[in-house]
């Protein structure tokens, strides 16, 4: 497996933001002004209707030091940061932002107030295997479909397994968590074995899991090959 690009590295810290400002003494427009100054956001709340924590107070395209922040959103139940570096970087930026806001505005913040973290990782990568190679039955099914559809249309129409999705049972929890998905990269021929994948995982864990999966498929295929006498 070869990483092509990190498209999204999202970290969401679950924290009740009312607890950060328990007596309502922090004036949001003042906070926004200082956030924009510190992070150089190019789009930020300016109208009254933009300050709705239910929908999310959104800042776009910022930077601090060597880190680019694609998106910062403040909800009443959490704070979200998107980068394209890694979820570790996004998490560090989130924690640093809260510490900075505490010292700057006197917010009532302690690290343990973040109940938990959630992640979304999106990457593209090249693989040594195609999804057809997951199981001989998939290859057979794709080949049969190719043959039948090609005959119907009078031209070769090549079919291949084009998605893998692993999800939890949505009826087992109130709020669903994203699954692991793998698709051929849009606008890229199947033959290049370039894929898009999303997972509810830290970036490094996501990549490691895909590497492990590819290795398992390669070993499985090696074991299934007939041995020379």
Task: Describe how the helices and strands are arranged.
Blueprint (H helix, E strand, L loop, with lengths): L1 E13 L13 H12 L17 E8 L2 E8 L3 E6 L3 H19 L10 E11 L9 H18 L10 E3 L13 E5 L9 E6 L3 H22 L5
Antiparallel strand pairs: 1-4, 1-5, 2-3, 3-4, 5-8, 6-7, 7-8
What does this structure look like?
By secondary structure, the protein is α+β, with helices and mostly antiparallel strands. It has 2 domains: 2-119, no CATH class; 122-224, no CATH class. 31% of the residues lie in helices and 26% in strands. The chain has 4 helices and 8 strands. Strands 2-3-4-1-5-8-7-6 form an 8-stranded antiparallel β-sheet. The longest helix is centred in the last third of the chain and has 22 residues, at 203-224. The chain starts with a strand and ends in a 5-residue tail after the last helix.
Quick gist of this model?
With 229 residues, this protein is of the alpha+beta class.
What labels describe this entry?
2 domains; 4 helices; elongated; eight-stranded antiparallel β-sheet; 26% strand; alpha+beta; 229 residues
């Amino acid at each position: 497996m070869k990483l092509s690009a990190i498209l999204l590295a999202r970290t969401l810290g679950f924290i009740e933001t009312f607890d950060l400002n328990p007596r309502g003494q922090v004036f949001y427009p003042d906070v926004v002004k200082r956030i924009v100054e510190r992070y150089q956001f190019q789009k930020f709340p300016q109208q009254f209707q933009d300050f709705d924590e239910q929908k999310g107070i959104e800042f776009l395209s910022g930077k601090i030091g060597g880190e680019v922040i694609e998106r910062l959103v403040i909800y009443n139940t959490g704070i979200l940061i998107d980068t394209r570096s890694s979820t570790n970087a996004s998490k560090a930026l989130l924690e640093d932002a809260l510490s900075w806001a505490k010292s700057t505005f006197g917010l009532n913040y302690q690290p343990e107030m973040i109940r938990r973290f959630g992640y979304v990782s999106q990457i593209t990568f090249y693989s040594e295997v195609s999804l057809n190679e997951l199981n001989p039955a998939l290859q057979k099914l794709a080949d049969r479909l190719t043959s039948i559809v090609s005959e119907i249309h009078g031209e070769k129409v090549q079919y291949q397994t084009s998605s893998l999705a692993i999800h939890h049972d949505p009826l087992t929890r109130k709020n669903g968590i994203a699954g692991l998905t793998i698709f051929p990269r849009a606008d890229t021929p199947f033959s290049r074995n370039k894929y898009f994948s999303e997972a509810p995982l830290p970036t490094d864990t996501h990549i490691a899991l895909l590497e492990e999966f590819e290795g398992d498929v390669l070993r499985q295929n090696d074991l299934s090959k007939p041995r020379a006498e």
